[in-house]
Design goal:
The complex is a heterodimer of chains A (649) and B (109). Chain A is mostly helical and 649 residues long. In chain A, 71% of the residues lie in helices and 3% in strands. With 109 residues, chain B is an all-alpha fold. The chains are: A mainly alpha (649), B mainly alpha (109).
Chain lengths: 649, 109
Amino acid sequence: MNLVWLVPVLPLAGFLINGLLRNSLSKSVSGIIGCATILASFILSLLLFGEVRQENFQSTVINFFDFINVGALKIPFAFQVDRLSALFLLIITGVGFLIHMYSTAYMHDEEPPHFARYFSYLNLFVFFMLLLVLGANYVILFIGWEGVGLCSYLLIGYWFKNIDYGNAAKKAFIMNRIGDLGFLIAIFWMIDQFGSTGFGEIFSRAGTITVPVITGITLLLFVGATGKSAQIPLYTWLPDAMAGPTPVSALIHAATMVTAGIYMIARSNILYTLAPVTQTVVAVIGLATALFAATIALKQNDIKKVLAYSTISQLGYMFLGLGVGAYTGAVFHVMTHAFFKALLFLGAGSVIHAMGGEQDMRKMGGLKKSMVWTHGTFLVGCIAIAGIPPFSGFFSKDEILSAAFGKSPVYYVIGVFTALLTAFYMFRLYTMIFLGKFRGGPQSPERVPSGGGNEVLDQVHHLHESPSAMTIPLVVLAILAAGAGVLGIPEVFATDSHWLQHFLEPVFAGSETLHAKGPEEGQLSKVFELGLMGVSVAVALIGTLVAIARFTRRPELEDATGFGKVLANKWYVDELYNAIFVRPLDLLGKFFCWLEKYVIDWIVNGVGRLVKYGSRQVRLLQSGQVGAYVLLMVVGILVLFLVELFVKK
Amino acid sequence: MPINYYIFLSVALFCIGVAGVLTRRNAIIIFMCVELMLNAVNLLLIAFSKMHYHAQAATNPNAGIDGQLFVFFIMVVAAAEVSVGLAIIVMMYRNTHSTDVNFLNRLKH
């Protein structure tokens, strides 16, 4: 407990060492520093977790120093150690360590300074993410929130020589900024209402504030969450963020950073429970995003794009869970999703690595034979995300869906339909990559993007299983993705079996008591709940089998037509945003550019020209003729006399 | 004699001095005109000093003495000015072989 400050400080130290000494460290040294700091943090988090899980544990706030002290407002730099933050610490450092380890092999083609730069960014990211989950008030949370956004920007644009990647990085940063504005306003509003930003003070006094104000604050917080967690309408940055290296996508854009919004809302659960309108908004947006992104994923051919849309869709599920009050379910899904989505991304990275940089699944196929470990673990990930028991995705998704059914059957139906789509597109991806025959040419014209090498690869012979630094994380994640479900076995199977529910009880206790007051809370009967589970399992199986059957028979994907084309083009949302926001802003920018050039500059230059012209004229008075000077002096004196005599009266 | 006469005389002398400075180009003449102006002022100061003395002699035996004091100051300053000014004129003559001030217009550079 006393060493909790070390948890974020270690990755920061790793960042400083790797960042400052990047020109002199060899690749193996910077890789070891990057991994070791995270591993140490992970061990500390484990120790912390051991303390936190004791029965009599009370959530503790550790003050370090006063961060802001202005008038009546005091914002301490404080960490909150409780079960929610301890759980997130484990996820971040654990998955983070595996991904660091994976990266040492994945990035081995980079030059040493860039290799060290990569690890320094990655460590900095982990530092900010830990700050985010450890902060004991909204301001510290916001510092972490902004920091992870910065690292996301840096890592998406890691290969900064490619202009498209740079643009993708900027897009991610700017989209996040829109959401952050909402978050910032919410913080100001909370300071105005509560005079504090500490979680403890705000949550204990939340009941005294009127409902409209709470609704406003929570909606603004949710705006922040839509930016960071890629929900409608601010989700478009996430697919583009796949420009970064694949482990980055796994760590930042699947497992940790994008779940920051869910963490924030789960942390503020009392505020949300007090604002039913916001809850409905959260649920509807989450559901809409889940469905919308799943439909887009059906028609994407880039394997990382499929996974990106799948991530958006799963995040939508989590927001649905938050919206219907299933906070535990949402956090559970964050955890299982972190495992299986990181696994899928790393598996995809392994495939891309083997294919020499190729990401188009139409050019893959039949990789099952050459990549045994990757194939096996990827399959586990697909089953987990599709929601087939007993893999972990089933339990977390089902918990959210049954809670959604409790709120409204419409939520449930759409959720299950989305689950069908999820199973379908995931197994479409799986089938296209691993089953059937290899469709890539023996001579691929594609170049290796990462190493900057220009050699043309012979893909068939290049196919190989990835080194063990890559397969070990895959296997570990696969075990977690398969087994994490036991942490949250539904109550219908055995009483008191939902360990996570029990574990997180103190965090969500406030909301639970508020909920218990509501009379309309209907308990589902056991049989009915089992029935719901049966439906979702059946749906997942149908999606899986249809996809496998369809794509093993006809693996050639022709260009989509009709409605499929709309999906392949992502519902033209990017084009819509371009037309509505980007182009008018562009025009406005051009107008101001013109204004600056021809009006403001003209005024400034005009003043200069006027002075120059005036001085050229006045200069002529200095003739050097003493007589002229004296004359002027006399005239001046006379004028003074005249003024004195006649005007001043 | 009324004070007005003194004032008219000194104004006339002063104006002659000004006109001389403005119109003449010979440095020595200009110099003399400057002296004329200074002495016009001296005359005026003495006249006013006397006037004050006559008006207040009964109560204040020193009335108007400051005016006369100023005259001495001005005479000292004028003497110093003459020495410097004549030195300048001598140097000027050595350089240009003339005492024409318009000849010396390089001051503008």
